[in-house]
Design a protein that fits this description.
Mean pLDDT: 76
Distance between the termini: 141 Å
Radius of gyration: 52 Å
Largest sheet: 4 strands, mixed
Shape: rod-shaped
Order of helices and strands: EEHHEEEEHHHHHHEE
Low-confidence stretches: 256-284
């Protein structure tokens, strides 16, 4: 380019470089040196500056202004993505654990308990069972004297047992007299038929929920259920021709000729005997 002339013997330019050197790079202050005194590693085709030095300057600028900011931004984005992933992973893992624990406590374990309770009831189910204690030990269902018994804890029953085609026994019930009493209601239904049972027993019984215990089983429709179910309840005299027996006679008057045979079929060991002359006695 004839910017400067070079002497191979002296290994120097014979005229000074028109480009001043930099104090930060002392070798460039020698304006007669070729390629900063390092012709092995550098070239100076224009006689102005070392191409490698210029390239280094350019690459340093690129590194400082472009590469380093991009790399730094990349790492910042990468760190943010990794942090977000780890946070999301932790949330998912914790949520899964919470859902799993909740499911085990509120779904799986109750289902296992229910399955075991149902299995117990199925293994002990006996349609001809006449043992009240066996009924009380059931969890969901059993049978009593060929009558289906369902154990319930429904809120609307307010802890009471009931009998309407099926015997519904509260799960918290522990009194064998309640089993017998509800069976007495079942016999009432068989004797009266559905319409008269609803009229004479079901509706009055539901409306008597406020009556105190010491008077409740003196009500004729409840006392007759005790008699038909062979209940011996403390504080109540059912064997002396009381109002429960009278209720049976008066209510079932249309079926008076069938009562004796029907009760003999469903009541053991005691039966209520109704004679054609209207006299009634408790047979032992």
């Amino acid at each position: 380019m004839r910017a400067r002339y070079y002497s191979p013997d002296m290994k120097r330019f014979i005229n000074a470089d028109i480009v001043a050197g930099k104090l930060s790079n002392a070798i460039t202050l020698n304006r007669f040196a070729y390629a900063n005194g390092n012709p092995v590693s550098f070239v100076d085709p224009f006689g102005l500056w070392s191409l490698k030095g210029a390239w280094n300057s350019f690459t340093n600028w690129v590194d400082e202004k472009i590469v380093d900011p991009v790399v730094e931004a990349y790492h910042e984005v990468k760190d943010a993505v990794v942090d977000t992933y780890n946070d999301a992973k932790e949330i998912v893992v914790n949520t899964y654990k919470d859902v799993k624990d909740w499911a085990e406590e509120n779904v799986i374990e109750p289902m296992i308990t229910i399955a075991n309770d149902v299995k117990f009831d199925m293994q002990n189910f006996d349609w001809n069972n006449n043992d009240e204690e066996k009924v009380l030990k059931s969890n969901y269902f059993s049978a009593y004297k060929c009558q289906l018994v369902i154990r319930e804890d429904w809120a609307f029953t307010d802890g009471r047992s009931a009998s309407f085609v099926i015997m519904f026994l509260n799960k918290n019930e522990t009194d064998i007299n309640t089993v017998k009493h509800e069976y007495g209601h079942y016999i009432q239904l068989q004797l009266l038929g559905l319409r008269r049972y609803i009229q004479y027993v079901a509706i009055p019984s539901v409306n008597s929920g406020h009556v105190p215990y010491d008077k409740y089983y003196s009500l004729p429709y409840e006392a007759s259920a005790d008699i038909l179910g062979d209940v011996q309840r403390a504080g109540y005299a059912y064997t002396d021709g009381g109002q429960g027996k009278s209720f049976i006679i008066n209510t079932y008057i249309k079926d008076i000729y069938n009562i004796h045979n029907f009760i003999n079929q469903y009541m053991q060991p005691a039966v209520l005997s109704v004679g054609l002359n209207g006299e009634n006695q408790r047979e032992k």
